[in-house]
Each structure stands twice: as structure tokens, then as C-alpha cells.
Specification:
Oligomer: single chain
Strand order of the largest sheet: 3-2-1-6-5-4
CATH topology of the domain at 115-259: Beta-Lactamase
CATH architecture of the domain at 115-259: 2-Layer Sandwich
Low-confidence stretches: none
Helix content: 55-70%
Distance between the termini: 153 Å
Number of strands: 6
CATH superfamily of the domain at 115-259: GAF domain
Number of helices: 5
Largest sheet: 6 strands, antiparallel
Strand content: 5-15%
CATH class of the domain at 115-259: Alpha Beta
Order of helices and strands: HHHEEEHEEEH
């Protein structure tokens, strides 16, 4: 009996669920019929209103499309500006990386040898290739005469570069004060004047100036100085000075050592009878 009662309860539950599903289906059909009726009314209204309603509908759709296009165009402009900004920043970063590489190479080359002549040649190459100078000279301080004496040059003979008294003229004042000089008027390049450089860089070890680099003209494609040039000037002011000073001392000590060794060799020789 209990089993039969259970079966009857389940059957009743199933019938109740079926009735609910049937009622839900009827409600859906009614709603569907209502929607069809509304669509029919709208179509009828459209037919009655004629071309004006269609035109208005099309105009509304066109307005929506235009607004959407304008929104997309505005977004496109924003993205384009962002891309330009990214491209500009990428170029700046790439240029900065190149500049750092150039500074590293220049610094490495300056300290790669203790040969005085070789160091002077490296300084000349840096000023030519990385700065773009056409005519310039390297002058070193002679403590005996208190003068700046040219020891190397490019674009002119060493003899054409001036010997300058310490503290006199643009070059002498740069050596005395230890501050770089940059001319505001690059027209000086047209007429060479050995006492009027467009740039003069002191070569300093701490606060002691051992010489200067005096630049008189730039290469044709070089119209002015960049941030990289000023970084190189700072590099030359310190690193070139150290490299020149060290190599000069080393070369002088080598010469003295050779002289002393030759003298000792003479003393070691047995006297002839």
C-alpha cells in the first residue's frame, strides 16, 4: 500500500508539473500574439504615414551612424596621437642609447693606451667623428713659460694654432677660470682667427687645468650643438685631461728610464786597456 501511495504522489506531482508547463506555454503564445499584433500595428502605421516616416527613420539611422563614425574618428585621432607620442619617445630612447654607447666608446678609447701620441690621436678622432669639428687644436700648459702651447691640430697646421699666455684672450681666460666657452655667433667660422674660437673646452684634473681644446669651425652638415655634444665636451674636459696627463707622465718616465738604462749599460762596460 505504501508503494502504491508513493507512486500516486509522484504521478500527481508529474501532472502538476505538466499543467504548469502547459500554462506557461499558453502564456508565451499569448505574449507572442500580442507582439505580432503590435508589429502589425507599427507596419500599418508606417504604411499610413508613407514616405515621411521612412525618411524620418532613415534620417535617425543616418544620424546614429554619423555619431558613431565621429566617435570612432575621435578615438582614431587619439590612438594616432598616442602612436606618434610612442614613436617620438622610442626615437628619443634609441638616440639616448646611441649617445650612451658613443660616450662609452669614447671613454674606453681614451683610457686604452698610455702612449702620448696615440692619446692625442684618439682625442682628435673623438672631436672630429662624434662632435663634428672641422678645424681645431689641442693646447697644453707649459708651466715653465706660463703659456698654452699647441701639440696637435686638425684642419690646420700645428704652427698655425696660437701660443697663448695664461689668462689672456678667450683661450687664456678659459684656461684660467676652468669654464667652457661657447660662442653665440657661429659666423666666426667663416673667417679663421686663431685667437677667436667658437668653442673652448678646458682640460681639467679636478680644478687644475692642464690645457684646452680650441674649436674654430664645424663640418658643413653641422649647424649647431646638441645635448650629446655638451655631454662629450664634459667627457673630454675630464677623461681626455686624465688620459693626456697620464700618458704624458708615462712617456716622460719611459724616456728617463731608457736614458738611465743606457747610462747604466755604459757604466757596466769594461774599460778598454
Amino acid at each position: 500500500m505504501e508503494k502504491e501511495t508513493g507512486y500516486l504522489n509522484k504521478a500527481d506531482e508529474f501532472l502538476q508539473m505538466f499543467k504548469k508547463g502547459e500554462e506557461f506555454t499558453k502564456e508565451l503564445l499569448k505574449e507572442n500574439e500580442k507582439l505580432r499584433y503590435k508589429i502589425a500595428q507599427l507596419e500599418e502605421s508606417m504604411e499610413r504615414s508613407g514616405d515621411e516616416a521612412r525618411t524620418k527613420l532613415y534620417e535617425d539611422r543616418i544620424k546614429l551612424l554619423e555619431d558613431e563614425i565621429n566617435s570612432l574618428m575621435e578615438r582614431f585621432k587619439q590612438v594616432e596621437e598616442e602612436n606618434k607620442d610612442f614613436a617620438s619617445k622610442y626615437i628619443e630612447v634609441e638616440e639616448e642609447n646611441n649617445n650612451l654607447a658613443n660616450l662609452y666608446v669614447a671613454s674606453y678609447q681614451l683610457h686604452s693606451t698610455l702612449d702620448f701620441s696615440e692619446v692625442l690621436r684618439i682625442v682628435l678622432e673623438i672631436v672630429i667623428n662624434l662632435i663634428g669639428a672641422e678645424k681645431f687644436a689641442i693646447l697644453l700648459m707649459d708651466d715653465k713659460t706660463n703659456e698654452l702651447v699647441p701639440v696637435a691640430s686638425e684642419g690646420m697646421a700645428v704652427s698655425a694654432a696660437p701660443r697663448v699666455k695664461f689668462g689672456q684672450g678667450t683661450i687664456g681666460i678659459v684656461a684660467k677660470e676652468g669654464a667652457s666657452y661657447f660662442s653665440d655667433n657661429l659666423s666666426y667660422m667663416k673667417e679663421f682667427n686663431p685667437t677667436t674660437p667658437i668653442v673652448c673646452i678646458p682640460l681639467k684634473i679636478k680644478e687644475h687645468v692642464i690645457g684646452v681644446i680650441s674649436i674654430y669651425s664645424l663640418l658643413t652638415q653641422k649647424s649647431g650643438f646638441t645635448n650629446m655634444d655638451y655631454e662629450l665636451f664634459n667627457l673630454l674636459a675630464g677623461h681626455a685631461a686624465t688620459a693626456i696627463f697620464s700618458s704624458r707622465l708615462y712617456t716622460q718616465s719611459e724616456r728617463k728610464l731608457t736614458t738611465i738604462q743606457s747610462f747604466l749599460d755604459i757604466l757596466k762596460e769594461k774599460p778598454r786597456r
